[in-house]
Amino acid sequence: MAGEDQEGEGYMTVTKLDVKCMSCKAEKTVEVQRQDLKAYEEGAHAQHAFPYLSADERELIISNICGECFDKIFADEDEEDEG
Ligand SMILES: [Zn+2]
């Protein structure tokens, strides 16, 4: 009889990425699965590798730019009202 009491699964390994926004220098932490990070580093698209992350979190990993700065940098061109 086995009296093992195994708890928890070992295959879901979360790894924390510390990412510093290159624009506003804010430090953010993004949690991803280790195997997903490996897939990304091997060439997988971020949106496929990290489907559970928000667009902002993915942008941090891809470009080192936080969501707020991303919005500023890639905001639609200013519409100049002629007046
Ligand atoms: Zn930023």
3D architecture notes:
With 83 residues, this protein is α+β, with helices and mostly antiparallel strands. Helix content is 34%, strand content 17%. The chain has helices at 34-41, 46-49, 55-63, 67-73; strands spanning 14-20, 27-33. A two-stranded antiparallel ribbon has the order 1-2. Strand 1 and strand 2 form a beta hairpin. The N and C termini lie far apart (86 Å). 16% of the residues are buried. Bound molecules: zinc ion. Zinc ion (ZN) is lined by residues 21, 23-24, 26, 66, 68-69.
Q: Estimate nothing, just give the exact number of structural domains.
A: 1
Number of strands: 2
Principal-axis shape = elongated
How far do the termini sit from each other?
86 Å
Q: Rg to the nearest angstrom?
A: 19 Å
Low-confidence runs of at least 5 consecutive residues: none
Helix content: 25-40%
The chain-level mean pLDDT equals 86
Largest sheet: 2 strands, antiparallel
SSE succession: EEHHHH
User: Structural class, from secondary structure content?
Assistant: alpha+beta
Report strand order across the widest sheet.
1-2
Provide a short characterization of the protein structure.
With 83 residues, the protein is of the alpha+beta class. The protein has four helices and two strands. It has a two-stranded antiparallel sheet.
Task: Give keywords.
83 residues, elongated, binds zinc ion, two-stranded antiparallel ribbon, 4 helices, alpha+beta, single chain, 2 strands
Q: Helices and strands in order, then pairings?
A:
Elements: E1 14-20, E2 27-33, H1 34-41, H2 46-49, H3 55-63, H4 67-73
Antiparallel strand pairs: 1-2
